[in-house]
């Protein structure tokens, strides 16, 4: 099952709106087939593993990270494929919460005389597949917030200079993190100040996540890097219902996808933004700030995982804070997260926090 989980992670960022699943077939103590969900969500992991195993699948045990599907979509159900292949046993980490499956896949297998075991490494599978479950159950994707800041929590000097606070090793790791998410998201202020490309570079992959900008007024430069490359790598812009219609049409005209969202107290509601992204099928979003967007996400309890890179320099109080104003008067109001891990990355310190 640990191998199946590793295989499933290979598809992260590429399989939305479907989950990224891994499957391993074992017959008489020997691995005879392995697979993971392919880009776009098809073929499924079980289909890939069965194709590799061929006749060796008969009598085998299938280790799969998620309950095999039971419904007819673009392809026949994986539960039926396992039955047809003559698999003797299915060990699944976790049940699928999708109403089209939700126990029905297990029922199909048991009715066909196949032994079913569940719960092996379930916690790890639940974490890996949390984005899919959140989209299915709450209509929003899993949200990772990444902050790269100085020792005193600053992301730029008072003049806006921010390149580079962290070192090359940390930046390379961030590109790998981008590649494992469906989308990379920033606020409008960051898009204006940094003119980012938000692409994955320097790690040997051609895959590019969706690029999302959150800008209520849609006041983004039409000659920016994002605008000039909107037909090459998708750009989605979450904006308010009061955005200038001419700007809406201009961005549509250069190839961007526009997502109107509700406002909350003069700012875009981050809950509405994430719901809009979930409605488009996204399961995993990697947010890289800036400070105002980070504060809004934390205040709304929408941050599932926080990854911080801390560099060994101090910028001072006049610099831009990594997290903007949250209007808190008491510590009890502050969102608290649990430290999961920390490690040195080049000259910087990376920490992973979760809700």
Automatic annotation (TrEMBL):
<dbReference type="InterPro" id="IPR002125">
    <property type="entry name" value="CMP_dCMP_dom"/>
</dbReference>
<feature type="binding site">
    <location>
        <begin position="290"/>
        <end position="296"/>
    </location>
    <ligand>
        <name>NADP(+)</name>
    </ligand>
</feature>
<dbReference type="InterPro" id="IPR024072">
    <property type="entry name" value="DHFR-like_dom_sf"/>
</dbReference>
<feature type="binding site">
    <location>
        <position position="194"/>
    </location>
    <ligand>
        <name>NADP(+)</name>
    </ligand>
</feature>
<dbReference type="InterPro" id="IPR002734">
    <property type="entry name" value="RibDG_C"/>
</dbReference>
<dbReference type="InterPro" id="IPR016192">
    <property type="entry name" value="APOBEC/CMP_deaminase_Zn-bd"/>
</dbReference>
<feature type="binding site">
    <location>
        <position position="148"/>
    </location>
    <ligand>
        <name>NADP(+)</name>
    </ligand>
</feature>
<dbReference type="InterPro" id="IPR050765">
    <property type="entry name" value="Riboflavin_Biosynth_HTPR"/>
</dbReference>
<feature type="binding site">
    <location>
        <position position="201"/>
    </location>
    <ligand>
        <name>substrate</name>
    </ligand>
</feature>
<feature type="binding site">
    <location>
        <position position="78"/>
    </location>
    <ligand>
        <name>Zn(2+)</name>
    </ligand>
</feature>
<comment type="pathway">
    <text>Cofactor biosynthesis; riboflavin biosynthesis; 5-amino-6-(D-ribitylamino)uracil from GTP: step 3/4.</text>
</comment>
<comment type="function">
    <text>Converts 2,5-diamino-6-(ribosylamino)-4(3h)-pyrimidinone 5'-phosphate into 5-amino-6-(ribosylamino)-2,4(1h,3h)-pyrimidinedione 5'-phosphate.</text>
</comment>
<keyword id="KW-0479">Metal-binding</keyword>
<feature type="binding site">
    <location>
        <position position="162"/>
    </location>
    <ligand>
        <name>substrate</name>
    </ligand>
</feature>
<dbReference type="GO" id="GO:0008270">
    <property type="term" value="F:zinc ion binding"/>
</dbReference>
<dbReference type="InterPro" id="IPR016193">
    <property type="entry name" value="Cytidine_deaminase-like"/>
</dbReference>
<comment type="similarity">
    <text>In the C-terminal section; belongs to the HTP reductase family.</text>
</comment>
<comment type="pathway">
    <text>Cofactor biosynthesis; riboflavin biosynthesis; 5-amino-6-(D-ribitylamino)uracil from GTP: step 2/4.</text>
</comment>
<keyword id="KW-0862">Zinc</keyword>
<dbReference type="GO" id="GO:0009231">
    <property type="term" value="P:riboflavin biosynthetic process"/>
</dbReference>
<dbReference type="GO" id="GO:0008703">
    <property type="term" value="F:5-amino-6-(5-phosphoribosylamino)uracil reductase activity"/>
</dbReference>
<dbReference type="Pfam" id="PF01872">
    <property type="entry name" value="RibD_C"/>
</dbReference>
<dbReference type="InterPro" id="IPR011549">
    <property type="entry name" value="RibD_C"/>
</dbReference>
<protein>
    <recommendedName>
        <fullName>Riboflavin biosynthesis protein RibD</fullName>
        <ecNumber>3.5.4.26</ecNumber>
        <ecNumber>1.1.1.193</ecNumber>
    </recommendedName>
</protein>
<keyword id="KW-0686">Riboflavin biosynthesis</keyword>
<feature type="binding site">
    <location>
        <position position="69"/>
    </location>
    <ligand>
        <name>Zn(2+)</name>
    </ligand>
</feature>
<dbReference type="InterPro" id="IPR004794">
    <property type="entry name" value="Eubact_RibD"/>
</dbReference>
<feature type="domain" description="CMP/dCMP-type deaminase">
    <location>
        <begin position="1"/>
        <end position="117"/>
    </location>
</feature>
<keyword id="KW-0521">NADP</keyword>
<dbReference type="Pfam" id="PF00383">
    <property type="entry name" value="dCMP_cyt_deam_1"/>
</dbReference>
<feature type="binding site">
    <location>
        <position position="44"/>
    </location>
    <ligand>
        <name>Zn(2+)</name>
    </ligand>
</feature>
<feature type="binding site">
    <location>
        <position position="198"/>
    </location>
    <ligand>
        <name>substrate</name>
    </ligand>
</feature>
<keyword id="KW-0511">Multifunctional enzyme</keyword>
<feature type="binding site">
    <location>
        <position position="288"/>
    </location>
    <ligand>
        <name>substrate</name>
    </ligand>
</feature>
<feature type="binding site">
    <location>
        <position position="190"/>
    </location>
    <ligand>
        <name>NADP(+)</name>
    </ligand>
</feature>
<feature type="binding site">
    <location>
        <position position="164"/>
    </location>
    <ligand>
        <name>NADP(+)</name>
    </ligand>
</feature>
<feature type="binding site">
    <location>
        <position position="178"/>
    </location>
    <ligand>
        <name>substrate</name>
    </ligand>
</feature>
<keyword id="KW-0560">Oxidoreductase</keyword>
<keyword id="KW-0378">Hydrolase</keyword>
<feature type="active site" description="Proton donor">
    <location>
        <position position="46"/>
    </location>
</feature>
<dbReference type="GO" id="GO:0050661">
    <property type="term" value="F:NADP binding"/>
</dbReference>
<comment type="similarity">
    <text>In the N-terminal section; belongs to the cytidine and deoxycytidylate deaminase family.</text>
</comment>
């Amino acid at each position: 099952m640990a191998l199946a989980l590793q295989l499933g992670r290979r598809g992260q960022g590429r399989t939305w709106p479907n989950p990224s699943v891994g499957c391993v077939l074992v017959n008489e103590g020997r691995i005879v087939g392995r697979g993971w969900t392919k880009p776009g969500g098809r073929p499924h992991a079980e289909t890939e593993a069965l194709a590799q195993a061929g006749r060796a699948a008969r009598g085998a045990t299938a280790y799969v990270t998620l309950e095999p599907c039971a419904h007819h979509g673009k392809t026949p159900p994986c539960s039926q494929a396992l039955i047809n292949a003559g698999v003797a046993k299915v060990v699944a980490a976790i049940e699928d919460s999708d109403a089209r499956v939700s126990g029905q896949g297990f029922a199909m297998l048991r009715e066909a005389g196949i032994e079913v075991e569940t719960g092996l490494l379930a916690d790890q599978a639940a974490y890996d597949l949390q984005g899919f479950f959140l989209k299915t159950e709450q209509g929003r994707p899993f949200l990772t917030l990444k902050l790269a800041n100085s020792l005193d929590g600053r992301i730029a000097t008072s003049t806006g200079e921010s390149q580079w606070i962290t070192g090359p090793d940390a930046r390379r790791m961030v590109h790998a993190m981008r590649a494992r998410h469906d989308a990379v998201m920033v606020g409008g202020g960051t898009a204006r100040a940094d003119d980012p490309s938000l692409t994955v570079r320097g790690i040997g992959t051609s895959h590019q996540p969706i690029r999302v900008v959150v800008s209520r007024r849609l006041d983004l430069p039409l000659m920016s890097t994002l605008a000039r490359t909107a037909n090459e790598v998708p750009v989605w812009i979450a904006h308010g219902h009061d955005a200038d219609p001419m700007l809406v049409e201009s961005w549509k005209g250069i190839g961007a996808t526009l997502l109107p969202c509700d406002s909350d107290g003069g700012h875009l509601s981050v809950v509405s933004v994430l719901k809009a992204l979930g409605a488009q099928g996204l399961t995993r979003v990697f947010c890289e700030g800036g400070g105002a967007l980070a504060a809004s996400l934390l205040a709304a309890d929408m941050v599932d995982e926080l990854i911080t890179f801390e560099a060994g320099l101090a910028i001072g109080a006049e610099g831009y804070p990594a997290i903007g104003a949250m209007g808190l008067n008491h510590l009890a109001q502050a969102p608290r997260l649990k430290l999961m891990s920390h490690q040195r990355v080049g000259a910087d310190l990376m920490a992973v926090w979760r809700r």
